[in-house]
Amino acid sequence: MLAAYTSLQNAQQVKEFLISKRLLSQDHFPVKEMGFMYFPIIKKVTVPNAQVLDTKFAFPQKKKEPTIQEVLKGKLTPKELTLLPQSQEVIGTILILEVPDELKSKEKSIAQAYLEVNKHLTTVVGKDKIHSGEYRTRTVKVLAGKRTKETIHTENGVKIKLHLEKVYFSARSANERLRIAKLVKPNEKVLVMFSGAGPFPLVIAKHSAAQHVWGIELNPLGHQYALENISLNHLEKKITLYEGDVHIILPKIKETFDRIAMPLPKTGELFLPIALPKVKVGGTVHLYAFLDEKDFDSERKKVQGICKAAGYNCKVPEPVKCGQFSPRVFRVCFDIQRIK
Ligand SMILES: C[S@@+](CC[C@H](N)C(=O)[O-])C[C@H]1O[C@@H](n2cnc3c(N)ncnc32)[C@H](O)[C@@H]1O
């Protein structure tokens, strides 16, 4: 078999080169022998700091995990196999299966197959009722594996414990949470108006030099999870959480903030008039919405108008896309800056 061999001293450098050029065999392990490292490669090429040769020995083979398509071959027709979505949402050890209507009757076999393919999963659930109500909660049904709906999700280096039906959570907002955390400047005071199980406060507290982060959450069970998550991540000194309606809680908080995040996409703008008085001049409000691309500009102008009507001069830039629902519909964030 083809191999690039080098001294142990150069091994790391050679390995990185082979990976970057996609030359390293994915099916075999490298071999260390007599002070040399032999890397299995897939093409005869020149490799800096290494000799390339055809070895007489065979490299140990890696055990190949089957793909979801391989496991489902025979259970699904070739046409049905093409209907399987490219990716599924995983929260902690629970996969939330989403399949098109044509595959609904085979949901349980598909769920079982995902368990076989992903050894870290304990449970596969199917979507039942979509996020709704004031708490934005949903229902799911267990399709395969352990009958649990509670899990610990790891995201951006923080642990988030939650029950899929008792509190809102979307793993798909992880990048957006990190984006906000990276915008926070040292010593900022940050408020998250709808904190849920705490993902925004946790990620901001972990990845910024904020002076302090506050959160307000209406759902008592969500708030309980958030409190538990603060302890789980040892962030008690950086985060303070309140349970209740922001209409009632926020006016009672004496602080003003450098930054306020409002992750409540459908009705968030209704809360702008109570958020704006609490953000410092020069500070930022992150307002979320679900929008069709064609409505970005009209919504931007509408938000500008809401700020003006509330008595605040604000700069409302183009929205930042932070999630996609269909070819033209996005989850967006307006990073509103209070000027006066
Ligand atoms: C879309 S979820 C976001 C939760 C969390 N920030 C996250 O990203 O996972 C919105 C949250 O706002 C909470 N909520 C709705 N109305 C509220 C209000 N008037 N005051 C405080 N929280 C509220 C809901 O209970 C829900 O947990």
What does the model show?
With 340 residues, the protein is an alpha/beta fold. The chain has three domains: 2-54, Alpha-Beta Plaits (2-Layer Sandwich); 68-148, GMP Synthetase, Chain A, domain 3; 170-338, Vaccinia Virus protein VP39 (Rossmann fold, 3-Layer(aba) Sandwich). It contains ten helices and 18 strands. The chain has helices at residues 8-20, 68-72, 78-82, 107-117, 174-183, 199-207, 220-232, 246-249, 272-275, 296-309; strands at 2-7, 31-33, 36-40, 51-54, 89-91, 94-97, 123-132, 137-145, 150-155, 158-163, 189-192, 212-217, 239-243, 257-262, 279-292, 314-315, 320-324, 329-338. Strands 11, 12, 13, 14, 15, 16, 17 and 18 form an eight-stranded mixed beta sheet that branches. The longest helix has 14 residues, at 296-309. It is globular. The N and C termini lie far apart (70 Å). Residues 134-136, 168-169, 173, 194-196, 199-200, 216-219, 222, 245-247, 263-264 line the site of S-adenosylmethionine.
